[in-house]
Specification:
- The protein is of the alpha+beta class and 474 residues long.
- It folds into four domains: 101 residues, SH3 type barrels (Roll), CATH 2.30.30; 126 residues, no CATH class; 91 residues; 70 residues, no CATH class.
- It is built from five helices and 22 strands.
- The strands form seven sheets. Strands 8-7-6-3-9 form a five-stranded antiparallel sheet, with helices on one face.
- Strand 13 and strand 14 form a beta hairpin.
- Helix 3 runs antiparallel to helix 4.
């Protein structure tokens, strides 16, 4: 503490430590985007956290550190949109800033509030939410396949694996353009002069690299022009590239991991086996109906509003699921906006007619946009259905039966066949009753059951439309 002697009084006085408000005001002078933020913060990582001179992870450090498990006080907070990081100003008079995330791994949080209050804004993501990482193979600077830890993948002959997955992307609309980089990092240097992606321009990418330091995903252009960043250079939370619904190339791999005939498999590795060795392996469910047309309850989200749900094969279902993620999300957002605008229009109908006219005009615009999205969705769905010819059931009913059929049935993953017969009572106006035969392993046995059921009913009703291509699940 600094001490001084006042000759006139002959007493000593002690200069008090700067208050939190004074330190917060000093932090505002160091960074214009800073705001007062008084909290107790703890280092929750197993490594030291460097203290920075200014709120910039690429800047210089003071040489001091925050030890693991150490608790300290902060007086101000600053969130930089350029790098997506949150910085905290220390309470000590000598100052210094610390970032809530590791400087070597953006997705690793190293600081946490003692009182439970969030240190970062709600828009900050704790996990890597890159769309390109889910669709493309991870590669290094040379274009070789790598795993999640960045280690190179080797082929059977010992050479480095080359990325082969292709996907089409589109630059989002806006006033600016997206620069093409020489290397997958914005901090490595300026972009290639004159190399740009304009708004709504489409391109094909063959790999993605996630830079752990800045958290951005960089896509490599298939034509060899260079790399582009998936996020905006000036706003980390804004994506500037949008994946399209169709992939390019011979690979048919979707966003989900495929293992054999199973889709979306979770593999659990244990040190010891938890089941007896003599227990037979459980066969994959639905394996016998991979190429048959089935109707699932979850298929309702795959079709546009003007389409009726119908039985489809597994290959068509995967194509429609990719389309549903892209167009279905836009349609639902447009419908929600239209509902909100219509509700507000009814609320101000009496109080302000001019506002109601503006809202009605906006609602008409949303309706036109919704119709346009439905048409686009319908067009691509028709195109996807036309690419693959579904293999419908070839089981023919008995020629003497006009109101029955043999339908494929799946019970606990095993395929069976069942005879179905509609028997009508002509004395009433009711449609009639459906009768089901026993489950059979062979369609010929089910066809014989159908013939016996029709003979035993003693009557032939008018011809009914029976779906041959639908599968029933129990």
């Amino acid at each position: 503490m600094a001490e001084a002697l006042i000759p006139s009084c002959g007493v000593r006085f002690v200069v008090a430590a700067p208050s939190g408000a004074a330190l917060a005001q000093k932090a505002l002078l160091e960074c214009e985007a800073a705001e007062p933020f008084v909290r107790s913060v703890k280092n929750i990582s197993d490594r030291k956290v460097a203290i920075l001179v200014k709120p910039n992870a690429q800047g210089h450090a003071t040489g001091q550190h925050i030890d693991p498990g150490e608790t300290f006080e902060v007086v101000a907070r600053c969130h930089r949109a350029q790098d997506g990081r949150t910085y905290l100003r220390l309470r000590e008079s000598e100052g210094g800033w610390v970032t809530t995330r590791s400087r070597k791994d953006f997705w690793k949080v190293v600081l946490d509030s003692v009182g439970g209050t969030a240190l970062e804004p709600p828009t900050s993501s704790k996990i890597c939410d890159s769309n390109a990482k889910q669709l493309l193979a991870s590669i290094d600077d040379e274009g070789h396949r790598v795993d999640d830890e960045g280690q190179s993948l080797q082929t059977t002959d010992g050479t480095a694996a080359i990325a082969g997955q292709l996907w089409r992307f589109c630059a989002m609309g806006g006033r600016g353009t997206i620069p093409i980089l020489r290397s997958p990092c914005l901090a490595d240097g300026p972009p290639i002069p004159g190399a740009l992606l304009r708004a709504r321009e489409e391109f094909i990418a063959d790999g993605v690299k996630v830079d752990r330091k800045d958290g951005r995903a960089y896509l490599r252009l298939q034509d060899g022009r260079g790399w582009v960043s998936e996020r905006s250079r000036s706003d980390f939370n804004r994506f500037v590239l949008e994946p399209l619904h169709e992939d390019d190339g011979v690979s048919k791999r979707t966003c989900k991991e495929v293992c054999g005939e199973r889709v979306k498999v979770v593999i659990v590795q244990r040190q010891t086996a938890t089941s007896p060795k003599d227990m037979p392996a459980k066969p994959a469910r639905c394996s016998a109906l991979q190429d048959e047309c089935v109707m699932l309850r979850s298929d309702s989200e795959l079709w546009p509003n003007c389409f009726d749900q119908r039985p489809i094969t597994s290959e068509i279902r995967q194509s429609l699921r990719r389309l549903g993620r892209y167009y279905g999300r836009k349609v639902r957002q447009c419908e929600e906006d239209l509902r909100i605008v219509e509700a507000r229009s009814q609320a101000v109908a009496i109080a302000c007619q001019s506002s109601q006219k503006l809202l009605e005009a906006h609602a008409d615009t949303l309706r036109k946009e919704l119709v346009k999205l439905d048409r686009q969705w319908t067009a691509v769905v028709e195109k996807a259905i036309s690419k693959t010819t579904p293999s419908y059931s070839t089981t023919e009913p008995s020629p003497c039966v006009t109101n029955g059929n043999v339908a494929p049935v799946q019970v606990l993953g095993e395929p069976f066949y069942c005879a179905t017969l509609l028997v009508e009572d002509h004395s009433t106006d009711e449609l009639g009753k459906w009768y089901l035969g026993p489950l059979r392993l062979e369609p010929t046995a089910a066809a014989e059951d159908l013939r016996l059921m029709a003979t035993g009913s003693g009557q032939v009703a008018k011809k009914q439309r029976v779906a041959q291509d639908a599968t029933v699940f129990f």
